[in-house]
Amino acid sequence: MANIKKIAVFTSGGDSPGMNAAIRSVVRTCAYLKIDCIGIYRGYEGMIEGDFKPMNARSVNNIINKGGTILKSARCAEFRTKEGREKAYRQLRAEGIDAFVVIGGDGSFTGAMIFNKEFNFPVMGIPGTIDNDIFGTTFTLGFDTALNTVVEAIDKIRDTASSHNRLFFVEVMGRDVGHLALNAGVGAGAEEILIPEENLGRERLLESLKRSKLSGKSSSIVIVAEGDKTGKNIFELKDYVEENFPDYDVRVSVLGHMQRGGSPSCYDRVLASRMGVRAVEALLEGKSTMMVGTIANELILTPIEKAIKGHTKIDKELIRVSDIMTV
Ligand code: F6P
């Protein structure tokens, strides 16, 4: 057992639904195990400035259902410097903090890993991002909620698309990966799904849209992941299709940051609760520089370095299913 008496928790990088449920879980696990818990506001920025608040079981009442993060979040340039990290270390020591749990994505984990190497400070990661792009876990916190948000939005777009016989390009988040686009695309019955991992090419997209029109469809939805490279951007793609296939009246809808908000799904709440417990227990067992993930519904620990460097793979089976569904 490690001699850990005080654990800090914070959220970092882009927020995601389920972060509050994870904060709640870390705080309550500490209370249960009679360990002091400190909340750090604004991620590494607040760590550098000493923006700390003691948390007890009651500090996290009524937050399991809330989107965003009560501890706020930030992307911090200063923490990328040695001086910034030294300031942060001094603040943690002054407060008597023995270890921290960071809830965030790969940028946040990279910071934690470097910090651990420099100061031998125990750190534990919980993956929170709607992009689901972290190696070592099948699901990140917020992904399931974001999927439901996207599918609900596309269902609404479908109503207006079919009323006007229109083709809609819908952009969803995912600057590097297409997990959100692919899963939401299958769930919402999209005609085509454009993701960075598989460049379909503009000509093949056009062929596919022509085929679907010939097969009797009068409206269509094409989901485009933010990081897709089929066109320069979604608007250029729209212009290209309009010019080369004038049969369709085309519109663009960029869903944007609404995908990151909203009350977390039950799945994300349960996952967050489980991960928070495991993160605190792992620190007390003397483990460090690991990320708590879930694979085949089992909680597993992966070295943070592997989580950062590993690549998540797109589900090829889903691409095949989508192709069959759009016959
Ligand atoms: O959280 C990850 C992510 O949602 C990406 O998919 C997206 O590109 C990015 O965040 C947007 O970040 P920001 O809020 O800084 O604009």
Description:
With 327 residues, the protein is an alpha/beta fold. It has two domains: 6-142 and 264-309, Rossmann fold (3-Layer(aba) Sandwich); 144-260, Rossmann fold (3-Layer(aba) Sandwich), CATH 3.40.50.460. Helices cover 43% and strands 18% of the residues. It is built from eleven helices and eleven strands. The strands form two sheets. It has a seven-stranded mixed beta sheet with strand order 3-2-1-4-5-10-11, with helices on both faces. Strands 7-8-6-9 form a four-stranded parallel beta sheet, sandwiched between helices. Strand 10 and strand 11 (298-303) form a beta hairpin. Helix 1 (19-32) packs across helix 9, helix 2 (43-49) crosses helix 3 (82-94) and helix 5 packs across helix 6 (179-188). The termini are far apart. The structure holds 6-O-phosphono-beta-D-fructofuranose.
Task: Summarize the entry for a quick read.
It is built from 11 helices and 11 strands.
Give keywords.
327 residues, alpha/beta, Rossmann fold, 11 strands
Helix content: 40-55%
* Estimated radius of gyration: 22 Å
Total count of domains: 2
Instruction: List SSEs in N-to-C order.
Output: EHEHEHEHEHEHEHEHEHEEHH
Say which molecules are bound, naming each kind only once. 6-O-phosphono-beta-D-fructofuranose
What is the CATH topology of the largest domain? Rossmann fold
Individual helix count: 11
SSE topology:
Blueprint lengths: L5 E6 L7 H14 L3 E5 L2 H7 L2 E4 L26 H13 L4 E6 L1 H14 L3 E5 L15 H22 L1 E7 L6 H10 L3 E3 L7 H13 L5 E6 L8 H11 L4 E6 L11 H19 L5 E6 L2 E6 H6 L6 H10 L2
Parallel strand pairs: 1-2, 1-4, 4-5, 5-10, 6-8, 6-9, 7-8
Antiparallel strand pairs: 2-3, 10-11
Helix pairs in contact: 1-9, 2-3, 5-6, 6-11
The protein binds 6-O-phosphono-beta-D-fructofuranose.
